[in-house]
Amino acid sequence: MPATARNVVPDQEDILLAKEASRLLAKLRDGDEPVELEMRRNGDSLSLKLPAPVVRVLLDALVGLSDGKPVTVVSQDTVLGTVQAAKFLGMSRTHLTKLIDSGEIKHHMVGSHRKMMFTDLIEYKTNDDEYRLRKAAEADKIAEELGLM
Q1: How far apart (Å, rounded) are the C-alpha atoms in residues 34 and 37?
Q2: Residue ending a domain, choose from 74, 105, 135
Q3: What are the start-end ranges of the E strands in 9-146?
Q4: What pLDDT was estimated at residue 77?
Q5: pLDDT at residue 1 in the model
Q6: Rounded Cα gap, residues 130 and 125, in angstroms
Q7: Would you give the end-to-end CA distance of the chain in angstroms?
Q8: What pTM does this model have?
Q9: Residue 19 CA to chain centroid, in angstroms?
C-alpha cells in the first residue's frame, strides 16, 4: 500500500469506540469553524484544533468503522495500479483495463504498467454513479407510465 494511504480494519472494541465517538462528533459536524478536541492517553494529554472539513472526514471514517467496515484514508495525489484501482471501483481488473483502453478512465504508463491518479478514479466513479442514478430514474418513469408501479 502506498505511503499516502492508511487502512484500518476494526475489531469489536474499535467498533464500539467508533460508535460512541461518531455519535458525539456528529454534534459538531455542521459549521465552518474549527473544532477543539481534548485528547488523553496513558496520562498524556493534548488539545488541538481540527479544521471543519477534517472533522467531516473523521466522522465519515468513524461511521464506517462503527458499521464494522474497513476504512482507508487516501491522499488525493495517490497513484494506484490496476489491481488497487479495480478493487476501489468494485470491478474486475479485466473490466478496468477495458475502460482504460476505451479512454473512459485516465491513466499513464510507468514502464508497461497502467497507473491511475486517485482523483481520476473519484471523477470516474462520481460520473458513473450519476449516470446510473439518471438511468434508474428514467426506468422508474417508464415503468410508471406503463402502469407497472
Answers
A1: 10
A2: 74
A3: 35-41, 44-50, 71-74, 79-81, 108-110, 113-117
A4: 87
A5: 43
A6: 9
A7: 47
A8: 0.65
A9: 18
Successive 10-residue mean pLDDT values, the chain, 149 residues = 68 96 90 91 94 92 94 87 93 97 96 95 94 94 90
Buried-state track 114-126, b at ≥16 Cβ within 10 A, e below 16: bebbbebbeebee
- Domain range holding 14? 5-74
Cell of 82: 490496476
Are residues 67 and 9 part of one domain?
yes
Same domain, 69 and 106: no
Given 49, 74, 99, the domain boundary residue is: 74
Find where cell 460520473 sits: 127
Question: Cβ distance 18 to 76 under 8 Å?
Answer: no
Q: Angle CA(116)–CA(126)–CA(139) in degrees, nearest 5?
A: 135
In this structure, which amino acid lies at residue 96? L
110 in the same domain as 52: no
- What pLDDT shows up at residue 73? 84
- Express the helix, strand and coil content of the chain in percent, nearest 5 each: 50, 20, 25
At position 81, the amino acid (one-letter code) is G
